[in-house]
């Protein structure tokens, strides 16, 4: 069935290919609509430099998506414990034993760089102190590993150390009622260290940037959401293959209101928060 989502243009040809030929071949947990959001991020002229880091790559569906917009000259990092079914005390996706092999195969077959700039880190993100110094200049940091509050606090701290000045952090399962601990972790982190701020919430994910870039990202987001709501005549009909059902209008309202409230209350200035610079890599 054709929906008005088909009228949305995908500018990045790698993402077009991902949507048409890769998404259906790599099992995973990210909604097809994230392709449109990824294309939006890629259209932003001040977010062009740097690599990808993802915690919780599993079989590679979201990793291969985000890596589609990363230039081959930048290194990308795939962090996962690759829990087998028998080790799975936490929520960790599919009930499989050989996830690292499937991930590696998927990257070789479907990743835009065929794995050339991918670095697999088989490790616990809770132990990131042991290895984060090798990770630098991150443009996109996607958090989809452990879903406990402690993981979210830890993973946001990790991300905040390695994203570059205009880098974006994406947290999966935000406001997902199956995982309230994810949302709790995000808010606890933002209260304590509001040096990164949310500028968009869409399709099960929250998007954050560093405070000095907040206004610029919000402006871009507003025009993108405007374009989306004009193009998608019936937001309740989602593209084929998507498992996610929700209205883009709800997200548009949410993101814009959230931004306005923070701005109107002058929250950041009042609290005299100072922007912390990345501790790792160029600004
Ligand atoms: C829901 S799956 C990720 C799905 C994937 N991002 C996608 O979109 O298809 C969660 C993954 O997080 C990993 N994981 C869980 N806790 C972790 C931790 N503390 N450190 C690193 N990886 C972890 C699991 O092994 C699992 O592969």
Tell me what the structure shows.
The longest helix is centred in the C-terminal third of the chain and has 18 residues, at 214-231. The protein has 283 residues and is α/β, with parallel strands linked by helices. It has a seven-stranded mixed β-sheet with strand order 3-2-1-4-5-7-6, sandwiched between helices. Helix 7 runs antiparallel to helix 8. It has one domain (4-270): Rossmann fold, CATH 3.40.50. It is built from nine helices and seven strands; from the N terminus they run ααβαβαββαβαββααα. The chain has helices at residues 13-22, 34-42, 61-67, 99-110, 149-162, 180-192, 214-231, 248-264, 267-270; strands at residues 51-55, 76-80, 118-122, 138-143, 163-172, 196-202, 205-210. S-adenosylmethionine is lined by residues 28-30, 55-58, 61-62, 79-83, 90, 92-93, 124-126, 144-146, 151.
Features:
7 strands, alpha/beta, seven-stranded mixed β-sheet, 283 residues, binds S-adenosylmethionine, Rossmann fold
Secondary-structure topology with pairs:
Blueprint: H1 13-22, H2 34-42, E1 51-55, H3 61-67, E2 76-80, H4 99-110, E3 118-122, E4 138-143, H5 149-162, E5 163-172, H6 180-192, E6 196-202, E7 205-210, H7 214-231, H8 248-264, H9 267-270
Parallel strand pairs: 1-2, 1-4, 2-3, 4-5
Antiparallel strand pairs: 5-7, 6-7
S-adenosylmethionine (SAM) binds at residues 28-30, 55-58, 61-62, 79-83, 90, 92-93, 124-126, 144-146, 151.
């Amino acid at each position: 069935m054709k929906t008005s989502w088909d009228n949305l243009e995908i500018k990045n040809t790698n993402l077009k290919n991902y949507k048409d030929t890769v998404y259906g071949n790599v099992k995973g947990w990210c909604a097809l609509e994230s392709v449109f959001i990824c294309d939006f991020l890629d259209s932003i002229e001040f977010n062009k430099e740097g690599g990808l880091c993802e915690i919780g790559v599993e079989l590679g569906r979201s990793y291969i998506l985000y890596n589609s917009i990363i230039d081959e000259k930048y290194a990308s990092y795939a962090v996962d414990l690759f829990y087998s079914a028998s080790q799975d005390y936490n929520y960790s996706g599919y009930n499989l034993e050989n996830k690292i092999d499937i991930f590696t195969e998927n990257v070789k077959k479907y990743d835009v760089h065929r794995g050339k700039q991918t670095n697999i880190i088989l490790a616990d993100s809770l132990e990131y102190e042991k290895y984060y110094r090798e990770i630098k200049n991150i443009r996109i940091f996607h958090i989809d590993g452990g879903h406990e509050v402690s993981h979210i606090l830890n993973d946001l701290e990790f991300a905040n150390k390695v994203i570059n000045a205009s880098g974006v952090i994406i947290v999966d399962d935000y406001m997902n009622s199956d995982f309230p601990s994810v949302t709790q972790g995000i808010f606890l982190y933002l209260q304590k260290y509001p040096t990164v701020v949310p500028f968009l919430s869409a399709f099960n994910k929250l998007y954050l940037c560093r405070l000095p870039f907040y206004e610029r990202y919000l402006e871009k987001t507003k025009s993108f959401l405007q374009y989306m709501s004009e193009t998608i005549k019936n937001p309740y009909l989602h593209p084929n293959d998507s498992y996610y059902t929700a209205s883009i209008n709800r997200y548009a309202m949410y993101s814009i209101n959230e931004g306005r409230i923070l701005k109107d209350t002058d929250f950041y200035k009042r609290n005299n928060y100072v922007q912390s610079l990345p501790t790792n890599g160029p600004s």
